[in-house]
Amino acid sequence: MxxxxxxxxxxxxxxADACGQGDPLPPDGAMPRMEDYGPSQLRNAAVIIAVGRQxxxxxxxxxxxxxxxxxxxxLSNLPYLGAGNDHDSxxxxxxxxxxxxxxxxxxxxxxxxxxxxxxxxxxxxxxxxLALTDAAQRVQRSAFPDAYAKHEPAATAIVNRLADGAARSxxxxxxxxxxxxxxxxxxxxxxPVHAKVGSGFRTADRPAHNGVDLIIGRGADIxxxxxxxxxxxxxxxxxxxxxxxxxxxxxxKGGCGWFVDILHAGGVIxxxxxxxxxxFVRPGQQVQAGEVIGKxxxxxxxSGPHLHFEVHLNGVRANSGAVNPVPFMRDRGxxxxxxx
Length: 340
Prior knowledge:
Helices cover about 25% and strands about 15% of the residues. With about 350 residues, it is an alpha+beta fold. The strands form three sheets. Strands 3, 4, 6, 7, 8, 9, 11 and 12 form an eight-stranded antiparallel β-sheet that branches. It has a two-stranded antiparallel sheet with strand order 1-2. Helix 1 (about 40-55) packs across helix 5 (about 110-120), helix 2 (about 60-75) packs across helix 6 (about 130-140) and helix 2 (about 60-75) crosses helix 7. The termini are close together.
């Protein structure tokens, strides 16, 4: 299936399930339309991608670099803005000549600036597995270290648009390929469990079912779908107000059983329900994508072992924030049930 992008060239298309095997758009070519970014900004992003590819930096690095440039300059090649702004910071990444990043002319060359960013990034041990904001901060040493995280969804979308879905590829592969079930994509996402989808999202017979049921045996590991901060890890009360999660549940009991909510970049929340015992994580804890947070069970309102998995947007934990996890996860290169 193809999705029309529009823009300078109406023939530009992107395969909905592509994961980076095609060539990225050249920086001097036609750019697609994106709601929040104009052609000049996207050409700068295309330069960042092209330099990363030339340096054999995996696509995860492209996402980190573009998110950083969005925070620092909105992907604009900024000149010196005066002493009242940010010292002598210049260019896409607001690099400072006084701190050894290069001459003013060099750091305002997008290709040079991108190369210097990547040179610093790849020196960080395990950078591919860090949360984006941590990797970016170790390069930039910003006064606002948590500011990069909110741009990860936009950077992911840009890399997908400009590089044939490369943010859906395996994050650590120099040559992009689709990620396997237990791997983390360049967008920073992975499957919570590798299992077929049972009950779907808000189906005709279950309109209040705000997630999907992933059918897998008792005791299977449940993985954080992306890096983030644990909001909730507890036993959910049943319809009678009782917290009885250490026993198997049943249909009509009510409640999520033992469950975890995790807040990710961009205000995305994921929820993991019906664990067999207390979660392995606690509120406030930072977790990495793929980290084991609990075990599959059937506590709460459940007819048998499975993971009930939800995705919520805009930081809204209530039912009104829930969206269908199937297209959401597919867009991030980790299709639930193992097929796109």
